[in-house]
Inverse folding.
């Protein structure tokens, strides 16, 4: 989770630097500056959206794996030795009858 937040922060910073570095305010009109800023913001939003989608996918896969583990745990629980011995004796008695 920390890595993802770091990536988001890095993308935001690089987008802001890219937008400022490519534009010369005195050479560009207000319209061009606005379009450039909008492009940088949409690029950042797109990257954040991709990262969030991948996080949701990973969380869903983790959820499915946890559900599978919860269902398989009771089958993997080992029987108590005393209970097993009682069940074996009980089975032998049933066979003798």
């Amino acid at each position: 989770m920390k890595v993802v937040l770091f990536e988001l922060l890095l993308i935001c910073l690089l987008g802001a630097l890219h937008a400022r570095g490519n534009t010369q305010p005195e050479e560009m009109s207000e319209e061009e500056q606005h379009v450039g800023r909008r492009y940088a913001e949409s690029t950042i939003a797109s990257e954040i959206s991709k990262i969030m989608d991948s996080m949701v996918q990973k969380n869903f896969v983790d959820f499915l794996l946890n559900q599978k583990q919860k269902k398989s745990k009771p089958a993997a629980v080992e029987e108590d030795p005393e209970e097993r011995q009682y069940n074996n004796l009980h089975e032998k008695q049933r066979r003798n009858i």
Observations:
- The radius of gyration is 31 Å.
- DSSP finds three helices and no strands in the chain.
